[in-house]
Amino acid sequence: MIQIPASQIIFDFSKDNTPVATAKSGDTVIFNTCDCYGNAAPGCKLPLPKNGNNPTTGPLLIQDAVPGDTLQVEILDIEVASEGLMRSGPGKGVVGHRFSKEFVKRIPIQEEMAIFDEKLQLPIDPMIGVIGTTSAGAAIPAVTPDSHGGNMDCKEIKKGTTLFLPVFVEGALLAMGDLHAVMGDGEIVICGLEVPGRVTVRVTVKKDQTITQPLLQTEKYWMNIVSAPTLDEAAKLATEHMHDFLISHTELDAETAGMLLSLVGDLRICQIVDPQMTVRMEFPLSVMQTYGFIPWHC
Ligand code: CA
Ligand code: CA
Q: How far, in Å, are 133, 136, 290 from residue 66 at the CA level?
């Protein structure tokens, strides 16, 4: 099985990055990842560059992936280390103006529980903060989410889900990192429970679909994930994008699709702390299937 060590990292998604491994469509690949600070994983003590955090493992070249294809990434497993940490301080995140000091909190993880303090243990729900293909244009820093994916901080990107990413360059150049053992929608203090770990994915090149934004299929929902400079823009784009998708991939017309978006579509915030804001629209797969949609991953 192809395995990429946590020392093989990039700090931006750039078409000029040299692939560190090559896979065929249908291969299973393990990405070992540092935490977003690059300094908590054993054997992964990295000097952080000036341009920020989020060391991202990769990129992986997928043979036969060409611009216009869609890369299907099945998240088969996410394992996390036995300790994570949170770091924030004045001016950081949504309530940073109320903080008087920098803080770092180390949080042990035992038997699938994050031990926050002596009073509270939280069940972990591991997710991938940064995952993306590589854009054809200028390099995009690993801290910035965009149409290639990247730092989306979407808590629904977790074990058992399937992410669809646009392919913009030959080989797709997939990379991922920034695992969170648990995180709430919003990522309010600019971190989740940051943790090193290991992600197992199966990568498949789909030649029959072209997409422009990341899409996610979960057990019960179809989602799109959209990033934009403001929450308002991201929310509007995510809604319009899902409306377009419903019209083009089901028998629904514009008015009926709009009504159903209003009745059963859930517009949710992924994160409001990164260089662009990220929003997702969640729509029930069963309703789409009622009107002729065939899920992309069965
Ligand atoms: Ca992140
Ligand atoms: Ca993070």
A: 12, 11, 33
Identify the CA nearest to 266 among candidates 249, 287, 253, 284: 284
Q: Which amino acid is at 261?
A: L
Task: Report the separation in Å between the CA atom of 89 and the middle of ligand 2, taken as the mean of its atom positions.
Answer: 15
Residue 2: how many CA atoms within 13 Å on its side-chain side? Answer: 19
Residue 286 Cα to ligand 2 middle (Å): 32
What is the distance in A from the centroid of ligand 1 to the CA of 210?
26
Of residues 63, 236, 56, the one with CA closest to residue 151: 56
pLDDT confidence tier of residue 22, bands split at 50, 70 and 90: very high
Give the number of whichever ligand sits closest to the CA of residue 142.
Answer: 1
Mean per-residue pLDDT, 83-105: 94
For the chain, which domains are there?
A: 2-206 (2.60.120.580), 215-290 (3.10.28.20)
For residues 40 and 198, give the distance between their C-alpha atoms in angstroms, rounded to a whole number.
14
Q: How far apart are CA 91 and CA 166, in angstroms?
A: 34
Distance 143 CA to ligand 1 centre (A): 7
Question: What pLDDT score was predicted for residue 297?
Answer: 83
pTM above 0.85, yes or no: yes
**pLDDT tens digits for range 170-189:** 999 999 999 999 999 999 99
What residues have their beta carbon closer than 5 A to ion ligand 2? 36, 129, 178
Which ligand ends up closest to the CA of 180?
2
Determine what percent of the chain is predicted with pLDDT higher than 90: 92
